[in-house]
Amino acid sequence: MDTKKEFSTKAYLDMELLRFSTAGSVDDGKSTLIGRLLYDSKSIFEDQLEAVKRASIRKGNENLDLALLTDGLRAEREQGITIDVAYRYFATPKRKFIIADTPGHVQYTRNMVTGASTANAAIILIDARNGVTEQTYRHSYISSLLQIPHIIVCVNKMDLMNYDEEVYERIQEEFSAFAAKLAIKDIRYVPISALKGDNVVEPSKNMPWYEGGTLRYILENIHVGSDYNHIDPRFPVQYVIRPQSDKFHDYRGYAGRVAGGVFRKGDKVMVLPSGFKTSIEAIDLYKDNLNEAYPPMSVTLRLTDDLDISRGDMIVKENNVPQISQDIDVMMCWMGEKPMKAGAKFHLKHTTKDVRCMIKEIKYKVDVNTLNRVDDGQELKMNEIAKVSIRTTKPLFFDSYRRNRNTGSLIVIDEGTNNTVGVGMIA
Amino acid sequence: MKKYNLNHLRELESESIYIMREVAAQFENPALLFSGGKDSIVMVHLAVKAFWPAKIPFPLVHIDTGHNFKETLKFRDDLVKETGARLIVGSVQETIDSGKVTEETGFDASRNLLQTQTLLDTIEKYKIDAALGGGRRDEEKARAKERFFSHRDEFGQWDPKNQRPELWNLFNGRKRMGEHFRVFPLSNWTEMDVWQYIYLDNIKIPSLYFTHERKVFLRDGAWLADAPFMKKRDSEKVVLKRVRCRTIGDITNTGVTLSTADTLEDIIQEIAATRVTERGSRADDKRSDTAMEDRKKEGYF
């Protein structure tokens, strides 16, 4: 069979994972773009396509409505809107991809922030006919706030602008000028037509002036290995493993996921908050003994000394200690229906630690459309973003979000409803 | 400089192990829902890895429709023996006998929907506060919207329009008395990932997944396994074919595919070439366009 030639198990086992987010409304051609990426990588199956065809006809649509592939909930299909972040999966021979597809209309900030929180890359779609709009600013700002390492700006619908190089260059210049104000490490630009397929998977014959790679080529080749912090060793203790069986009577392992840096067998380490010093006796992953562990590996550390360590403690290196404080400044995005006011108390989760916190002050809000600071410090409403000072009941061990997304992020939870109402990036 | 990269299967494994450990840490009385299918077998494998050398710190729960492939039950019991895990069985037959639900009749009768009541009863009886399931977001469009930590109210219902935001790797498992969570560590896995992982870690799976001779009959374009309790129309003739299961569930709604794949490599090649999703032959999903969402809202897996 032909497929045997094009598919190799060994190659598959060597693939990397890339998580990217897309944002925008139906009008930008986002669904068409996702549909094309999925379809061209054979990730849409016949029965799914049949179901979309049936639903499209039932709704009276003339064309195949690819949005129906991603809009899974009854309310979404009925109202023709996307309510929630949807996750989509596809693989090419080089990589496996997870798309966090975030809606553009309803509660866009909340959904975009959610989708962006785990993304290595973000696709920002610009309609070539309209150029850079308020929505472009919003998407870019949120992407930079969430520290997505790679931004891919797709100038879409080039077919409707006669594949004109000048149109593309004008938009690229406009976006670059704006992006200079943001902290984005890596920006790429691609002129595409999602509908006609130009530069999505296949290079465009209509735009010979464009010398860069197609969107899929870029997605396949962005370097993601350096997206994690490999400098500052951080190991939040998640769970203590004590088998208390005859065979493993004295076994005491600290299970967790490496949040930063590299830990090696024999390393001298320090445990927070106690400050005890010891060294790593072994790094276990099931029956394997590893020489080193790095993000995002889930492992179990065994230490040379018997210490009192529990969930919420952090294992670090003596010469590289995180910030330790009860007073923390964060960029907070509010997601709760009830606005947040200074003085309010919440439950807070940071790494594997649970504490309570009080909002001391709302310093300023950010207008996500203009990036201007707004001094309206009374309350923070849903979908608003502000710089906020909080005080926690116990010290947190943290880094700035910019330095480490794992040790720089936190969520706050309403103590009455138990809902996650706010998310914060430590300044 | 050295490359500190995990391949995607090890990254998914690491994420799932992290989720399982969060469940063990955040909940008092978790349990792992075990169907006997490949996803729940991978779940048990991951749980063993997450807590080794300690035993899995939660029981396996099997909701038994009474319409099982006999291979499934044997496999389940062997696995329980091997891992030393505790097994809880919730019986759909008992739920029917108690009069809480009424069995469907007719040719397409299935106990699929009735399982929900048995599942919720079992969760209540054993005071389970987090039920780990093997659901994946790539399986079905309603599942694509599911959280890792999915809140259920006191009636076991899912409210898809009002889910908690889930960011980074911070999972909010806080709840009131009587509420519980469904947790899906395999959320980000695809069918292909699961098969590749089974191959990579050499995980034992039931013989049903490999080609074998079986009495089958054709219904609505899908091959179904014959069993004494399967009601057949006159036009549905039982024939002997070489088949294998792509998914394993209750016999009444698990389609089998014609296949000669007898190794994991063969299965992987077959999946790579196939143009139909694995749920494409599941009768339970065909009932309506939003069949999965409707069942999930009620408390289904």
Characterise this structure.
The complex is a heterodimer of chains A (427) and B (301). Chain A contains 10 helices and 25 strands. With 427 residues, chain A is of the alpha+beta class. Chain A folds into 3 domains: 13-227, 3-Layer(aba) Sandwich (Rossmann fold); 234-316, Translation factors (Elongation Factor Tu (Ef-tu), domain 3); 323-426, Translation factors (Elongation Factor Tu (Ef-tu), domain 3, Beta Barrel). In chain A, β11 and β12 (277-285) form a beta hairpin. The longest helix of chain A has 15 residues, at 165-179. Chain A starts with a helix and ends with a strand. With 301 residues, chain B is α/β, with parallel strands linked by helices. Chain B folds into 2 domains: 8-194 and 289-298, HUPs (Rossmann fold, 3-Layer(aba) Sandwich), CATH 3.40.50; 205-283, no CATH class. Chain B has 8 helices and 10 strands. In chain B, α1 (8-26) crosses α2 (38-51). Classes of the chains: A alpha+beta (427), B alpha/beta (301). Chains A and B meet through α2, α4, α6, β2 and β3 of A and α1, α2, α6 and α7 of B.
Largest sheet of chain B: 6 strands, mixed
Number of helices of chain A: 10
CATH topology of the largest domain in chain A: Rossmann fold
CATH architectural arrangement of the largest domain in chain B: 3-Layer(aba) Sandwich
Structural class of chain B: alpha/beta
Strand content of chain A: 25-35%
Query: What fold name stands as the CATH topology of the largest domain in chain B?
Result: Rossmann fold
Q: If strands are numbered along the chain, what order do they take across the biggest sheet of chain B?
A: 3-2-1-4-6-5
Under CATH at level 1, the class of the largest domain in chain A stands as: Alpha Beta
